[in-house]
């Protein structure tokens, strides 16, 4: 009857198609929360290291927007080419992208930075370090002294205590808790470093403490970079004959990192020391 009256409709006899709801892309902050848990559980990265390094990189992403290749690339390109920060940003962002299933090749943006690009002849001599120590503020002068004498990272000056006149225990660090040795014990005495005078400053994390030190030293117009005091400590150890495992332990990093960071200095200083030693043995003047 319905066919005869032209009132038949197939739609009355068919099951309506059910549209699949579109899956909303995850926001950056949601992906980061999962990636953080994954990274901490599958690597040796500590919570403090994450907060002071990885989180600092990812904080620049638009947290309330979906994670995208364009957003990641924008963060990478905001860093100066051929600098350590560009290399680290690429490395960390590549791991995040891989975890999130994004296809973005960051290797071409890393640039030409490597640890060997550090210039060994630009490090301050012990004489220059001594001349530059006379900062007007005694608390910052103390910070300068312990960094130079014990090879500390800038933030470690706020989280250390003396074990004895030659040993300083660093109880909070970006890597591991460790004890450093004074490679100029005379500085401990002459500069009265055992009379601890830490500046009354605070910071939300270790990076903030380090920035306090760098800002203050820049204000005093030191003729070298803050971290050069730590580098100079490492090379002083080489010249004094301490081997890489000892120096790495005192500086709170792995032997591999130590060798990679100071390869150019290690090779030259070790070779020069052996040469001078052998020349002294072979061509020492005869007894009078």
Descriptive overview:
The protein has two domains: 28-111; 121-275, hpI Integrase, Chain A. The longest helix has 20 residues, at 263-282. It has a three-stranded antiparallel sheet with strand order 1-2-3. The relative contact order is 0.09. Helices cover 49% and strands 5% of the residues. It is mainly alpha-helical and 288 residues long. The chain has helices at 28-42, 47-58, 69-77, 84-100, 126-131, 138-150, 185-190, 206-219, 228-240, 244-251, 255-261, 263-282, and strands at 160-164, 167-170, 178-181. It contains twelve helices and three strands.
The gist of it:
This protein has 288 residues and is mainly alpha-helical. It contains twelve helices and three strands.
Biggest sheet statistics: 3 strands, antiparallel
Mean pLDDT: 82
Instruction: Indicate the percent of residues in helices.
Output: 40-55%
Instruction: Tell me how many strands there are.
Output: 3
Rg, Å, rounded: 29 Å
CATH class of the largest domain: Mainly Alpha
Give the topology, please:
Blueprint: H1 28-42, H2 47-58, H3 69-77, H4 84-100, H5 126-131, H6 138-150, E1 160-164, E2 167-170, E3 178-181, H7 185-190, H8 206-219, H9 228-240, H10 244-251, H11 255-261, H12 263-282
Antiparallel strand pairs: 1-2, 2-3
Helix pairs in contact: 3-4, 6-9, 10-11
Features:
5% strand, hpI Integrase, Chain A, single chain, mainly alpha, 12 helices, three-stranded antiparallel sheet, globular, 2 domains, 288 residues
């Amino acid at each position: 009857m319905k066919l005869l009256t032209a009132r038949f409709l197939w739609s009355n006899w068919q099951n309506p198609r059910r549209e699949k709801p579109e899956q909303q892309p995850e926001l950056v902050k949601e992906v980061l929360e999962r990636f953080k848990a994954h990274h901490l559980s599958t690597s040796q990265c500590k919570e403090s290291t994450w907060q002071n390094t990885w989180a600092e990189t990812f904080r620049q992403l638009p947290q309330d927007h979906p994670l995208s290749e364009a957003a990641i690339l924008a963060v990478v390109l905001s860093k100066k080419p051929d600098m350590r920060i560009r290399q680290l940003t690429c490395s960390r962002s590549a791991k995040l992208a891989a975890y999130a299933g994004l296809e973005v090749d960051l290797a071409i943006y890393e640039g030409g930075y490597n640890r060997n690009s550090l210039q060994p002849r630009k490090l301050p001599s012990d004489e220059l370090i001594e001349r530059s120590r006379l900062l007007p503020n005694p608390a910052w002068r103390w910070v300068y002294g312990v960094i130079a004498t014990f090879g500390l990272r800038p933030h470690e000056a706020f989280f250390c205590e003396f074990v004895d006149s030659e040993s300083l225990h660093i109880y909070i660090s970006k890597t591991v808790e460790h004890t450093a040795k004074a490679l100029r014990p005379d500085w401990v005495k002459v500069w009265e470093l055992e009379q601890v005078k830490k500046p009354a400053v605070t910071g939300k994390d270790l990076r903030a403490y380090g920035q306090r030190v760098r800002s203050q030293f820049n204000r005093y117009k030191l003729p070298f970079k803050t971290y050069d005091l730590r580098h100079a400590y490492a090379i002083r150890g080489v010249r004094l004959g301490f081997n890489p495992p000892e120096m790495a332990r005192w500086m709170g990093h792995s032997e591999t990192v130590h060798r990679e960071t100071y390869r150019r200095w290690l090779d030259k200083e070790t070779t020069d020391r052996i040469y001078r030693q052998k020349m002294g043995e072979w061509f020492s003047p005869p007894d009078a």
